[in-house]
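wait is this the right file?? whatever heres the structure
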């Protein structure tokens, strides 16, 4: 199987899957990948450690995804689940990296570049923008080399996934069975035993209420809640206070002119005679001579593509054609780059030697390389100047806040007065407030704030919190000024709720019992009419019902299509509904589809759907086998 995987890890499928993987990373944050942490380790996979820093970055991205998807930050059990997911993802990534090394999977530099240039987050007005790309990486504090190295590892993982997809197959019989199930129609007879009347008959005593209250005490409690006060600092707020003068802006612009320009980019195509540097001198000479001949032909108007196509297959030296598109510096090898950036548009180079062989290059277009005047970028300059000036002040204020909160542990007033920032206060929050959209407002939606508010130091000892970094440019210190301990809700406050619940449960159970009795009689041969009269309900009939028929209750549909085919009479089943009612369901006929009438496009869609399911099963099995064969340990004290 491994050889089959290696044979199939190239091609468009790998690229498509990788783009699906890399686009979210471009938007969720590149921080996931890089940066060095300390010596703390959260897991070990064979002989490789997964650092605490890597885990924290993965967890932060998972939190951000959760909040963007659901509109609130995770808290409590949700936070624990995200921690488990983060460490599992890192373990899986490490298992994959090690497996890919054993397989010997490789990804070329051109492939990495092409995929990076396709990421929407790196696009400008005219396609991939090197300035935007490098700016985004700089903002995250990383280099293109480090990012491209991780992209290469992700592409290897994507290739492995695509290999499982391409080596899977679906038989005609499997597809036929799926089509028959998906397009099967059924004739139904169903009825509902309503619970409302039974609810009215239920008599609930004080003893019943007290018993239910005692058995469900954990459901009838209120968690601890607090109100917090905090002082908040952000780089943006500090930047707003920076005084700006025209003279200072022009000086800042002059010092940073290059950052406002567009780097020079050149569209380059080349002919390459791939001769290694270790080749004999006569081969090197032949390559240079051939390159000179090709150069003369290109200068005479010949197309590079045609020159390659016209080369005989048995030619002593091969010639390859490459069209790079727009390149900036630091992409090509230095000797090749120097020549490429010395050419004018349309000019053809003399033969150039590199570690790959002998090149003949032609620049087809030149763009960028200019710096806009100050007046055109004044707003950008002002924004950058304010932030640059504010950075030092921000860190000074941050240090002052931390120091004053420590020196006056029982109050934030001195810090607020010294720094001139307002002391803010929240309403009541609980440990789970971050997961409640109604309660999660501003900083109280941040899990770090919730965690600090309910920490022993802040809640039990009554001290100010340590400095909390919400992000590198946003910090705060908080304290609890009101604490309401957890309490058991008194019986009298929930008495009516308990009565309603008891009536619902007893009526539901009564309807289920009556419904099961009715089904038993039907299965013994009683007529539907006699059973309906005895139990006091009316049958409804529906013909040619599909699995997702909107006119029939979903629970009734699930029961109907889970029942067998009718044999010597309808196939009966039953189900309790969310209202407490009970539905009796009888399948009176099953109509199999005419497979020939199903459009080919739909058959192809279901084929691909089934294949994707098989591929997912294969992937899950592969990961389980990799983990079974590996030595994996998790240090849960560091999670």
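ok assuming it is, sequence goes like this
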């Amino acid at each position: 199987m491994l050889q089959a995987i290696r044979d199939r890890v190239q091609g468009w499928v790998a690229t498509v899957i990788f783009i699906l993987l890399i686009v979210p990373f471009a938007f969720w944050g590149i921080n996931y990948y890089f940066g060095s942490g300390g010596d703390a380790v959260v897991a070990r996979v064979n002989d490789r450690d997964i650092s605490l820093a890597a885990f924290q970055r993965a967890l932060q991205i998972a939190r951000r995804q959760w909040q963007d998807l659901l509109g609130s930050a995770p808290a409590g059990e949700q936070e624990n689940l995200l921690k488990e997911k983060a460490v599992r993802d890192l373990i899986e990534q490490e298992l994959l990296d090690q497996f890919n090394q054993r397989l010997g999977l490789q990804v070329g530099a051109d492939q990495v570049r092409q995929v990076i240039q396709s990421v929407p987050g790196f696009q400008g007005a005219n396609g991939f923008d090197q300035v935007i790309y490098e700016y985004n990486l700089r903002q995250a504090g990383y280099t293109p080399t480090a990012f491209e190295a991780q992209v290469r590892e992700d592409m290897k993982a994507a290739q492995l996934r695509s290999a499982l997809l391409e080596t899977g197959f679906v038989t005609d019989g499997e597809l036929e069975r799926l089509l028959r199930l998906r397009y099967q129609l059924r004739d139904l007879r169903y009825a509902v035993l309503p619970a409302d009347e039974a609810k009215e008959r239920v008599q609930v005593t004080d003893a019943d209420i007290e018993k239910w209250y005692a058995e469900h005490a954990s459901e009838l409690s209120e968690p601890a809640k607090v109100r917090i006060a905090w002082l908040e600092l952000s780089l943006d707020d500090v930047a707003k206070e920076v005084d700006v003068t025209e003279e200072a802006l022009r000086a800042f612009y002059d010092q940073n002119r290059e950052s406002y320009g567009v780097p020079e980019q050149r569209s380059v195509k080349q002919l390459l005679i791939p001769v290694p540097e270790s080749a004999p001198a006569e081969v090197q000479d032949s390559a240079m001579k051939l390159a000179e001949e090709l150069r003369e032909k290109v200068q005479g108007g010949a197309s590079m593509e045609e020159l390659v196509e016209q080369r005989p297959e048995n030619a002593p030296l091969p010639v390859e054609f490459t069209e790079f598109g727009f390149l900036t510096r630091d992409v090509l090898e230095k000797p090749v780059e120097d020549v490429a950036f010395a050419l004018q548009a349309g000019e053809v180079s003399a033969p150039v030697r590199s570690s790959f062989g002998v090149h003949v290059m032609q620049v087809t277009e030149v763009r960028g390389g200019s710096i806009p005047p100050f007046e055109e970028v004044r707003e950008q300059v002002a924004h950058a100047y304010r932030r640059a000036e504010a950075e030092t002040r921000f860190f000074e204020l941050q240090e002052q806040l931390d120091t004053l909160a420590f020196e006056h542990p029982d109050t934030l007033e001195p810090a607020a007065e010294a720094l001139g920032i307002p002391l803010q206060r929240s309403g009541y929050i609980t440990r789970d407030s971050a997961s409640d959209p109604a309660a999660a407002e501003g900083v109280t939606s941040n899990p770090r704030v919730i965690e600090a508010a309910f920490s022993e130091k802040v809640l039990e000892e009554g001290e100010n919190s340590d400095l909390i970094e919400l992000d590198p440019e946003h910090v705060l210190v908080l304290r609890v000024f009101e604490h309401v301990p957890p309490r058991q809700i008194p019986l009298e406050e929930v008495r009516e709720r308990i009565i309603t619940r008891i009536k619902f449960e007893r009526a539901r159970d009564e309807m289920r019992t009556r419904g099961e009795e009715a089904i038993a009689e039907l299965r013994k041969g009683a007529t539907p009419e006699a059973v309906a009269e005895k139990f006091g309900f009316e049958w409804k009939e529906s013909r040619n019902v599909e699995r997702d028929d909107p006119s029939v209750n979903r629970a009734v549909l699930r029961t109907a299509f889970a029942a067998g085919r009718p044999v010597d009479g309808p196939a009966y089943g039953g189900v309790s509904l969310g209202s407490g009612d009970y539905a009796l369901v009888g399948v009176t006929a099953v109509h199999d589809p005419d497979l020939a009438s199903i459009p080919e496009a739909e058959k192809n869609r279901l084929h691909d759907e089934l294949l994707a399911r098989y591929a997912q099963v294969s992937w899950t099995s592969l990961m389980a086998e990799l983990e079974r064969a590996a030595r994996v340990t998790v240090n849960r004290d560091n999670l």
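Residues 2-170+609-638 form a domain with the Triger factor/SurA peptide-binding fold fold (CATH 1.10.4030.10). so i think its the right one actually
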